Amino acid sequence: MSLLDKTMEDCVMLDKTTVPDIYGSGIIITYKEGASFTANVVFDSSTQGKIAAVQGVKNLYTVITKKTIAFAYHDVFKRLSDGKIFRITSDGNDNKTPPSAGLDMRATSAEEWQLPNTMEVNDG
Question: What's the number of domains the chain is made of?
């Protein structure tokens, strides 16, 4: 087991679903727990991250996963250890190790996120 593997935490995707509301004039958006995976979610404590926080930007993170996990822009997931929810803010295909590398990892950006009041998480 590598040092990178030891830093991974259990996470779960939150899959977005929509259904018509009971009046037929709108939709209800919910998030349901989906596939499980492991990731290393690291807070961005860089100078640029601190400046962004002062300017009102949400907390920023780097999410490290295996290359087999390619997030799409605005995918949402939950870290199980603390229930914190994150939304992906970069293209998951942009930053991964090459096939010849010994490391199996992909890096994406994410922001700490809260579900809007009209949405809920259904954990099964």
Answer: 1
* pTM for this model (two decimals): 0.79
Contact at 8 Å (CB) between 112 and 59? Answer: yes
- pLDDT for 10-50, tens place per residue? 999 999 988 888 887 888 888 999 999 999 999 986 666 56
For 68, the domain range is: 3-115
For residue range 54-91, list pLDDT tens digits in order: 666 678 899 999 888 989 999 999 999 999 999 999 88
DSSP assignments along 10-28, one per residue: EEEEEEEEEEE-TTSSSEE
Domain membership flag for residue 120: no
**Rounded to the nearest 10 degrees, how much is the dihedral formed by the CA atoms of 37, 38, 44, 45?**
150
Helical H segments across the chain, by residue range:
3-6, 47-54
> In this structure, what CATH number is given to the domain that contains residue 42?
2.40.10.270
Please tell me whether residue 44 adopts helix, strand or coil conformation.
coil
Whether the Cβ atoms of residue 9 and residue 81 lie closer than 8 Å to each other: yes
